[in-house]
Every structure is written in C-alpha cells, then in structure tokens.
Amino acid sequence: ALARLKDARALPTLESMLDRENLKRIQKPGAPDDSSRIPMDDNQRDDVMINALRGINELDAKDELPRVSAVADGDPSYKVRDAAMKVRDFLKGAPRK
C-alpha cells in the first residue's frame, strides 16, 4: 500500500520480499480448525517477489537497481526473472513497451 502511495518507507519491506531464502521461512496458517503452519509453495513465493518488484517499479526506486538486477540474473523462477528484467529496464530509463 505504501508503494502505491509513492511512500519510500515501503522499501525495507519490499527488499525483504525479494529474498527467496527468507520467504522459505515464512509460513501461512493451516486450516481454520488446525493450528499447524504450512510453508508457502514456490508459486506463492513467486507472487510475493513479483509484487515486490511492482512496488519497486511504482516507487521508481533506482537505488534498488543492483538488487533487482541480481534477481533478474539469478532467480530460479522464469516468471520472477522476467518481471525483474522489466523493472530493471524501467529503472535504467528504457522506454516502456
């Protein structure tokens, strides 16, 4: 929400959302009648990372270019790499397609 409001206070949270290893430790609640926790699956982690990239893009956070480039060059998910490449191009000032 802060990113949509162009509030840079969102950046620390967005940065943590780009850390795939950190996301592997986050769990979602189990069934309503069960107190167990379930790890996020790969698709959910991808969605979190893509949303973080959207926030960085919305903030035009050029200082995040090295982190975005690292994701674009090395994330195991094609969807995440593709989103990161687009954000990297935007942050570098490339015209939008």
Can you describe this structure?
With about 100 residues, the protein is mostly helical. It contains five helices and two strands. It has helices at about 10-15, 20-25, 40-60, 65-75, 80-90; strands at about 25-30, 35-40. A two-stranded antiparallel sheet has the order 1-2. Helix 3 runs parallel beside helix 5. The longest helix is centred in the middle third of the chain and has 18 residues, at about 40-60.
In short:
This protein has 97 residues and is mainly α. It has helices spanning 11-17, 20-25, 42-59, 65-74, 78-91; strands spanning 27-29, 37-39. It contains 5 helices and 2 strands; from the N terminus they run ααββααα.
Question: What are the main properties of this structure?
Answer:
97 residues; mainly alpha; two-stranded antiparallel ribbon; 5 helices
Write the layout of secondary structure elements.
Elements lengths: L10 H7 L2 H6 L1 E3 L7 E3 L2 H18 L5 H10 L3 H14 L6
Antiparallel strand pairs: 1-2
Helix pairs in contact: 1-3, 3-5, 4-5
Helix content: 55-70%
Number of DSSP-assigned strands: 2
Radius of gyration: 15 Å
SSE pattern: HHEEHHH
Major sheet summary line: 2 strands, antiparallel
Give the averaged pLDDT, no decimals.
86
Shape estimate: globular
- Oligomeric assembly: single chain
